[in-house]
Amino acid sequence: MNMTQEQFGAGLLAFLRRSPTPYHAAGNLALLLEARGFRELREADAWHIESGGRYFVRRNGSSLIAFVRGRGAPEEAGLRLVGAHTDSPCLKLKPQPELRRHGFLQLAVEVYGGALLNPWFDRDLSIAGRVSFATASGVSHTLIDFRDPVAIIPNLAIHLDREANGGRAVNAQNHLPALLALDGSEPRDFPVILRDRLLAEHPACGAERVLDFELSLYDTQPPALVGLHREFIAGARLDNLLSCYAGAIALGESDGDSSAVLVCSDHEEVGSTSAIGARGPMLSSLLARMLPDREARERAIAGSMLVSADNAHGIHPNFADKHDANHGPLLNAGPVIKVNTSQRYATSSETAALFRWLCEAEGVPVQSFSVRSDMGCGSTIGPLIAANTGVRTIDVGVPTFAMHSPRELAGCNDLYGLARVLTRFYGTSRLT
After folding, report:
1. For position 429, what pLDDT does the model report?
2. Which residues partner with 104 through β-bridges?
3. Contacts of 279 (CB under 8 A, 6+ apart)
């Protein structure tokens, strides 16, 4: 890998700061790839793919697939694929979010994905996402990021709920509307506030009125390296922007000999069933255009492998009983191979062996995770892509604490190690 861990970490922190939503994440991945020689293709255009060419495609602005068309024959060597997702659990604004109650202007929200709700209270929140608006010439769309802390969800004081520390249930409808302003100080409706902010951020956009939006609240506290020796990274959306960034850096270092693909899809946190999710047709469509000859494509898929990279559960020292005693991954002890016999993860002994071999070759330690037999198991895009394409797959990830919180925690060494292994994976001449 052609960068130090310090360089990698600095780039990661900058990427996380600039990516408060899947739209921003996909846009920043596009910028990262363009700086490494990748060219954007439009799905509506005719494609002219060259041997050794570097390309990427976006759909809906929030899902991105990048690929290198290797100089070698893909039907002989197969494809090397890495999968991740751009979305994270969050609070999304409802279509008509304004609530004027008891002298306050509030914003109503809907919970996206399996979010931990209690950590959203008492945080300095901003608003970001995509806005569609009318101009003199038609309809336009652009991204927006308020950046400043403009909203907050205050907690209820302990004096009014003496049992709060014994377990307060959060009602998403009643307890999560965010304070935006004093009602009397802000007579404008939210679409007007949004239009004015849009014009301030994009003066030349010509917005006359807002037609629709997809906006989320996000914590304005920036990501940071924490710990006595700065050995951990704390921040929002580590699940799964860490894997998106590691995959993009690794793909950028591909030498172009082998065909390599990076899949960063939206909607994983809500099941992936959409035109841009892993259950949808985006990857299959791209593979058909990348390898138009069906016989060659089927041969390539038979020799291919997908590394589905999504965060894993590290063993929490305060809640160690939530883990199988033999499968409690430690932070900064290496990336994790995730195994589940019910195929919630797509790992097989064959793909696990190949990944272990890559880790050994790179000098990166590797760990295993299997959920307790008396607990349910999460899932990833790995089984979905495997079922849709037939590509043999392994599910891996970096150990993480507080997954699905607005502030998660992971180990710095683990992600850098994963990026190194993915770089070697993309550069491996033949998978056996």
Report:
1. 78
2. 101, 182
3. 271, 272, 273, 384, 388
